Amino acid sequence: MTVDLACGTPAFLDLTFAGLEALPAAGEERFAQALLRSPGGGASTAFAEESGHADSAPVVTRAALDPSLVTGRGASVDFAEQEAENAATNGTIIGPDRTAYTLPGEASGRKAVKLTPGQYVEFTLPSAANAINVRYSIPDAPNGGGITAPLDVTVTGGPRNTMTLTSQYAWLYNQYPFSNDPNAGLLHPDWWITECGCVPAATTPTPTITKPFRPTHFYDEQRLLLNRTYGAGEKVRLTVPAGSNAAWTIIDLLDSQLVGRPHFEFVAANVLAFGADPSGRRDSADAFDKAIAFAKVKHLTVYIPPGTYQVNRHIIVDNVTIKGAGNWYTIVKGHQVDLSPPAPDRSVHAGVGFYGKDVSVGGSTNVHLSGFAIEGDVRERIDTDQVNGIGGALSNSTIDGLYIRHTKVGMWFDGPMTNLRITDNIIVDQIADALNFHTGVTNSVVSNNFIRNTGDDGLAMWSEKTADASNTFDHNTIQTPVLANGIAIYGGTNNTVSNNLIADPIREGSGIHIGSRFGAEAFTGHVWITNNTTVRAGTFELNWKVGLGAIWFYALEKNIDADIQVVGNNFLDNTYNAIMLVSDFPVKDLYSITNVHFKDIKVDGTGTSVVSARVAGSATFENVVARNVGAVGVNNCGSFHFTPAGSEFSLTDLGGNTGGGTTGPWLAAWELPNTITCDDRPPVVPPPPPSGW
Ligand SMILES: [Ca+2]
Questions:
Q1: From ligand 1's centre to the CA of 95, what distance in Å?
Q2: Backbone region of residue 439 per phi and psi (left: phi > 0; alpha: psi in -120 to 50; beta: other values)
Q3: Could you identify which of 39, 374, 464, 647 might form a hypothetical disulfide with 389, taking C-beta atoms 3.0 to 4.6 angstroms apart as the criterion?
Q4: pTM of structure
C-alpha cells in the first residue's frame, strides 16, 4: 500500500505534547530523556564495526534466528539460509542497527558483511548443494541508475564463477513515489517532513535537506547454478576481485540448495514448436500466445522447456495450464518498454507478466501456472503501470512454484474473483508489494510462499470497494520489507493470517498490520491471527516519532470492531512494543478499536512496552506471557483526554498474563482496567536475543 503518513500534519507530535501535562511526575523525566534521542535512533545500538571471525562451522538460520525458535512457522523451503555475519570473512561486519535508510537496517538480522576489493566471505555448506543465491548490495552510480560489478564464486576444488552484481534495481530515494536520482530535490516540497519538522516550501529560510534524501532499497539478490553438486562441509567463497569497480560490496546472506533435474512435459503444446526462442534473443510473446491458443483447442498443457524467453508484455491467460521446467530452468524475462501514448489503463510502460482477463470482460478462470521464473525490469515506482508479474482476475486457479523478481508487484489481483490457490512461490526484489488481493477476492489461499525485499507490504488484502472475504495467508515467510508491513489486512470479512514468519520490517510499518485505511471497507465477521511469529519487528514511525508494535491495529477511517482473535502468536525481539492499537489525532474522538482478544501469546523482548494503546476502545488478554520487557507493560494513552475517569482504552485480564521486565509484571493490577500510563517515548532497552521458552 502507498503510505500516506508523509502527507498532512505531524499530528502525533502535537498530540504528545498535549499529553505531556497529564504525565505522572516520574514519566516527565523519562519523556524528556526520550525527546533527546535522535529521530532515527531507534532501539538499535550505534553503527558498530567489528572484524569478522574466522571459524567457519555452518550456522543455518531462518530469518537470522535459530530454526528451533520458529519451528512450524513460515514457509518450508528447499534452501538453507546462512547469514554472512555468521560466516568466515576478512571483511567487516556492519550492524546491528535498525535505523531506516542504513545498510545494516535493511539487512537480514540487521547485520551483514562489508567487503572491499580483494576481500571475501566464506560459507561452509551445511548440506549438498548445486545452487546458491546471494543477497547483496553495491553502490549506486553517482547520478543514479545503478552500476554492475563482479563477484567471484569459488567452491572447494571447483572452477571460478563470476557473478555480475547490479544495483540497477536497488537504490530509491526521496518521497513517495520515490526517485532514482540521488541528487534530486524534494519531490513534494509542500509536504510536511520529519527531517526539519516543517513544510519546506512554506518555511523561511528554506531548510537545507541532506542529499541523497532518504536512500532505501539497497539490496538485491541473484541466483547461480553451480557446475556440479558439492557436498556438506565444502566451502563457498565469495570474493570481490581486487580490481572491482565497486568501492564496497555488502554480502547479507547466502542460500544454498540442491536443485532437482528439470521437469519435462512430453505431451504438451511446447512453446518451441510455436517459435519461442530459448536463448532469449528474439521476442517469444507471440509464440506463447500461439501455444496457448493451440493448447486450448487440443486440451493440452502449455510447456515451456528450459531456457530464457524474452517477453515484454502481458501474456493473457484464461482456461489454460502453463508449466515450466522448474523456476531455476525456465525463465521468462522482459525488459521495460515505453508506451507512447499511454495504454488505456494509463500504463506508460509495458513489461513481462501473466495476466488474467480484467473483471470488466469477465475475468479468467481455470488457470494453472507452475514451475517457471518471471523476471521483470522495473526500476521505478509508477502506480498506474501494470508491470506486475501476475495480474488481472483469476478465479478457480492455481499458481505454484514460481520465482518472481524485479517486477513492480509480484502478484496483484483486481477482483472480484474467487478460489485462487497460491503455493510454494518465491517473490523477491519488488518495487512495491509481493502480493495484493485487491477488491473482492474471496475463498483464496496464499500458502508456503517465501518473500524477501519488497518495496511495500509483503502480503496484503485491500478491500477497496468490495470486501475481501474468507481468505487465508498461511505458512508464509516474509523478510525485510523496506517499506510498510510484512502482512497487512485492510478491511474485509472472515480472513485469516496463520502460521507465518515475519522478520525485519524497516520503516512505516511492521510485522502484522490490521488497518482501517486506504478507503477500505470495514472489518466485519472475524479476523483470525493465529500462530504467527514476528522477529525484530516494530519500526520507528518517522513521522509520528513513536515506535510501532510488531502487530498494530490502526483505526484511521472507521471503527475496528469485528471479532478479532489473536491467538498463539510469538512476538520476538520487538524493537519497541509488541502490540499497538492506535488512531490518528484528527480522528481520535471518532474511531475506536474494540472486540480484540489476545490469547496464548509469547512476547520475548520488547524495547519498550508489551502493549501500547493510543486509541479509545478495549481488548482482552489471556495467557499473554512476556519477558525482557523494557518499559512499563502497558503504555495507555487512550484518546488523550486524560480525565479523572482514566484512559479511554480498557484492558480486561482474563488470567495467565505473567512475566515482565524492568518495571515489574507487565500486566499488573494497578494498570487495570484503564490506568493512564501514557509515555510514548520511553528509553528503549534493547532486549537480549530471543531464546527457547
Ligand atoms: Ca545478514
A1: 9
A2: left
A3: 374
A4: 0.92
